[in-house]
Amino acid sequence: MNKRSVTAAIMAGLMAASSLAGCGSTAKKTSTKKSSTKTEKKTEKTEDISGEIKFDWWGGDTRHQATQNAVNAFMTANPKIKVDVNFGSWDGWESAKALEYNSGTGADLTQINFSWISQYDQGGSAFADLNEYKDIIDLSQYSKDDLKMCEDSNGGLAGIPISMTGRTFFWNKTTFDKAGIETPKSVDDLISAGKTFKEKLGDDYYPLSLSTYDRALLMTVYIQANSGKPIINEKGKLTASKDDIKKGVDFIQKLQDNHVMPSIQQLQEDGNTALNENPKFIDGHYAGIYEWDTASAKYVSNLGQGQELVVGQELTGMGSKGLGVFSKVSMLFAITKSSKSPKAAAKLLNYLVNDPEGVKTLGTERGIPASKAAYDTLTKEGAIDDMMTAAHKSVTDSKPLYFSPKFDDASLKDSATGIYQQTFEALSSGSLKSDDAAQQLYDGFQAVLAQ
């Protein structure tokens, strides 16, 4: 894990100044979303805030650089506050942070996942109630519904939603053109594409590639499309029966059996790399992904020369009750309960999510902002690219259902030991029958919801 310490040196200030010259793509979009230009009003009270704080986050290189630049600029503008940063890749990050949150040794300001509120903040023990710092953090920039989702079990505001996100399809149009077919609009189109790819392009070409977690999410969409209800509702109850889950499992296996996607074993043989770094995705052999609507940039940037990635639509034909699409809080900024300088942390938080300079420096590294002020700033800058906008619209236009943070509990989602990994890997290899896979998933959900 990379660790770096940022100080308010002259070099840092210069880096910040240069970084503010422009961020993100130059593509523009038309917005119908209501926005506000209200930002932090400097008062004697906020200007007197001082302290030394730690700030941590996970992500890729471009997120690291943008965030570090924003921190540098913040310290230049606020010389009474010193910020030390710690950042790294996702691998192993949650385990390390869980220990810190549970022991009260976490960073003052920390980037968290939506599910961490219920996992690590029982009774408001890990994260501060941000309502206590509303004179510093402009909460009026967020919808009441978005803030409501971020409350802890005591009703305290455990974090600020950075962005909202959902899953949609992206297709390598170049490969589909090579196969002589259009990108899929329905489940039938997708299954038919599997046959066409095999016949016209070869056994090593697939219209879609899904990891174990991707399969769990798409299974959920199938179940929800047939029930019209979130698989885990807002009261924390599982709405799906074991039979419902079996039908979802069978749907996922049907895709593999019809050459729509490679097996988990095939993906493992490709090497221990993320899909956007997989050579078979890069050269177009794997021609489709099911990803967060804000994640397109890392795939587009890695595609081979001449390859074109396009946004798909939510597939029809999943079920009779709708599309089954969901939307959730992508990630949040939170202040730890153990922070010795929470006001300084709150001032940095507000700078990152509401202040025009901080917002422009971060760009869309964490998605399309949930803050109305940030959204307005980036729209005026032309910094929200067309692909991200189209993908986000694909989700929001599909009337997304509620997504419970319990679905992402570590016991289910962990990439090494989680129920999703164990179940879909075994199902993919044929060592686990669909009845047993459904029972395993059902029991896993019930165990999490009983906590």
SSE layout and pairing:
Blueprint lengths: L9 H10 L24 H4 L3 E8 L2 H17 L3 E8 L4 H11 L5 E4 L3 H5 L23 H6 L10 E6 L1 E6 H7 L7 H14 L11 H16 L14 H16 L6 H6 L9 H4 L5 E5 L3 H5 L8 E3 L14 E10 L6 H12 L2 H7 L9 H10 L4 H11 L4 E2 L7 H4 L5 H11 L4 H16 L2
Parallel strand pairs: 1-2, 1-3, 8-9
Antiparallel strand pairs: 3-8, 4-8, 5-6, 5-7
* CATH classification, class level of the largest domain: Alpha Beta
Shape: globular
* Main β sheet profile: 6 strands, mixed
State the helical fraction: 40-55%
Task: Explain how this protein is built.
The protein has 451 residues and is an alpha/beta fold. The chain folds into 2 domains: 10-164 and 330-394, D-Maltodextrin-Binding Protein, domain 2 (3-Layer(aba) Sandwich); 167-324 and 409-449, D-Maltodextrin-Binding Protein, domain 2 (3-Layer(aba) Sandwich). The chain contains 20 helices and 9 strands. The chain has helices at residues 10-19, 44-47, 61-77, 93-103, 116-120, 144-149, 173-179, 187-200, 212-227, 242-257, 264-269, 279-282, 296-300, 342-353, 356-362, 372-381, 386-396, 410-413, 419-429, 434-449, and strands at residues 51-58, 81-88, 109-112, 160-165, 167-172, 288-292, 309-311, 326-335, 401-402. Strands 1, 2, 3, 4, 8 and 9 form a 6-stranded mixed beta sheet that branches. A 3-stranded antiparallel beta sheet has the order 6-5-7. α19 packs antiparallel against α20. The model is unreliable at 1-44 (pLDDT under 50).
